[in-house]
Input
Amino acid sequence: MTSDLSQKAQAHLMPHYTKGAAWRAENHLVLDRGEGCYVWDTAGNKYLDGLAGLFCTNMGHGRADFAATASKQMERLAFFPTWGFSTPPAVEAATMIAERAPGDLDEVFFVNSGSEAVESALKFARNYHLSQGDEGRYKVIARDWAYHGTTLGALTVTGVPKFREPFLPMMWDGVRHVRNTYGDSISEGGTAADLASVQAIEQMILDEGPDTVALVIAEPVQNGRGALVPPEGYWQELRRICDKYGVLLCADEVINAFGRLGHWTGSERFGVVPDMITFAKGVTSAYQPLGGVIMRRPLVEAIWDSPMGIFMHGSTFGGHPVSAAVAVANMRAMHDENILQHVLDHEDYFKGQLDELMLTHDCVKEVRGTGYFYAVEFMADRVAGRDLSDAQAAALQGGVLGSFVREARVMIRPDDRGATMLTISPPLIADRGVLDDLVNRVDQILNRTGAWLAAG
Ligand SMILES: Cc1ncc(COP(=O)(O)O)c(C=O)c1O
Output
């Protein structure tokens, strides 16, 4: 059955972000079912889902209660849009999300994916400034190596060169990228205001002219360049700078929100109230597609009270009642099963186990991350202080690392965005047993990688 389906996939199914040569050549995996933190392919092989699908299946696979919720909603009212109407699940989901968001982030605009959420945040920022008579503001400041999605607006703010360069002629001219927080730290006696990564943002606003800048967008913990946890006080500085120049601040929490960092939002984790939070993925644990933007109520009211009077944006399926019903069930389950506390209780153990791996493997340069979100970065030999050669990095990124990951029967991500890394982000329900299993499999991959580098 596997090879039959695999062949049909090769004939008819266009894969995302996958080279044609790889898709044509390989008898790739066809995944068939899941339970908890594990999934099975059509041949019956079992894999540990160490990436929660794609930072998505926070409450794990195979939940019959979520399926029942979706089915009940389909029978009752399968669909009505959120254009002038509402449905009980959309209202309830928005209310629950607003209650879990920090400060006066009280208004929820639903869409269907992370890219659309980012797209909506960009347009909301422009729409807001326009409504206030600030017509010159349209530029957006984002960070190097940050991934914000695929649609042309979201892609323009994305800072990963290989994703954006082919489409440059189709992008708008208003995005500026600045350095992220990689390698940045507060020096002895200094404050977060001294961080180069903070100053880069203020300098860019000044260089561009503050009255042309609409928005700063950043992830609390940035995925691209490998689980970049910001230095203490970084987000407070972003808030201060944005307030100083009348620029809106958006936390892109498509990965971070809904428990990945042990809190409902990453903004809560870092003690900041941005103007917008984008979310997707974990809001339904991916049992249904749903994304959205949480906005500060005064901004929404300012638009509604202005002559413009409207956020000029929408989509057919945004706030789909079935997705919204599943979001409600997911948030209730997260609460009832105390999942945020579970992550907080286990994050130190998890990070500690990964740090131990670094000590026993000279091919590990650094382990970064927090909560249930980590990156393991490679080098040729840490003890000798030798980085990967270009050829080693190209080979590891070009399939060698992927084959070691596949052999270990674990779904984690070989990552090439700015360095050679593994990204690890299991379902939030992973307990000590699953975390140990995951770390053992990473150990196996590091053994294979170390031996491959040594054979050289
Ligand atoms: C931070 C961030 N923003 C936006 C997106 C785009 O989300 P989607 O793939 O649902 O369009 C992603 C996807 O991984 C993401 O990580």
Q: What stands out?
A: The mean pLDDT is 97. Residues 65-336 form a domain with the Aspartate Aminotransferase; domain 2 fold (CATH 3.40.640.10). Residues 113-115, 118, 147-150, 219, 223, 252, 254-255, 280 surround pyridoxal-5'-phosphate (CB under 6 Å).
